[in-house]
Design brief:
This protein has about 200 residues and is α/β, with parallel strands linked by helices. It contains five helices and eight strands. It has helices spanning about 15-25, 50-65, 105-115, 180-185, 190-200; strands at about 10, 35, 70-80, 95, 100, 125-135, 140-150, 165-170. The chain has a six-stranded mixed beta sheet with strand order 2-1-3-6-7-8. A two-stranded antiparallel sheet has the order 4-5. Strand 6 and strand 7 form a beta hairpin.
């Protein structure tokens, strides 16, 4: 049985301000004091897992160990079927450069690899998000989310982040990057995972 969350403080194990604000908005009805890794001066732990769940658990448990507070972490990425599910947990790594992350470079790599192998369209893909809610006593709960869609080219839209300009969710004509931010947030992989989190631990 899923453990209910009955505390009043929660650390979100991220340095990403946009992600923190999105999570704060989702948890606002529950009256929590929500802080982040940055608020506590915590470093980013090395993500050595081979799955989204493992990496989310690493981040959540590191924040718990450092603060003594319940912590919530997510790990997310895009899986492209024709590439064997890559980049998957390496989604951000594909964007790494000496000058920082360049997701245009990452999106070009995805497109180039698809064309190099002659993968027929539609290029099926999905965004995945796994949330791990961890308590100081060692217990944790896992909430997976996903949204199915396809890779499109060329890139479309200037909103969102990451691979959003090349991902068009099923049932929509717009890419994530062309959508209104709040419209995207209502249907995203993170929204799916959060719906499970709320139903399991807060509702």
């Amino acid at each position: 049985m899923t453990r209910r969350f009955d505390g009043d403080r929660l650390v979100v194990a991220t340095h990403n301000h946009g992600k923190l604000e999105e999570i704060r908005a989702l948890l606002a009805p529950y009256g929590l004091e929500v802080t982040s890794n940055a608020d506590h001066g915590l470093p980013e732990p090395e993500e050595t897992g081979t799955t989204f769940e493992e990496n989310a658990r690493i981040k959540a448990r590191a924040a718990v160990a450092a603060t003594g507070l319940p912590s919530l972490a997510d790990d997310s990425g895009i899986e492209i079927d024709a590439l064997g599910g890559r980049p998957g947990v390496r989604t951000a790594d594909w964007a790494e450069t000496e000058a920082g992350r360049d997701f245009v470079l990452a999106m070009r790599r995805a497109h180039d690899e698809l064309t190099e192998i002659g993968a027929p369209e539609p290029w099926r893909a999905r965004f995945r998000c796994t949330l791990v809610l961890a308590w100081p006593d060692g217990h944790d709960e896992v909430f997976p989310g996903a949204i199915e869609g396809r890779i499109v080219w060329p890139m479309r839209g200037d909103g969102g982040h990451g691979y959003d300009p090349i991902f068009r969710p099923d049932g929509y004509d717009e890419t994530f990057a062309e959508m209104d931010r709040w419209a995207k947030n209502r249907i995203s992989h993170r929204a799916d995972a959060f719906a499970r989190l709320i139903a399991g631990s807060f509702a």
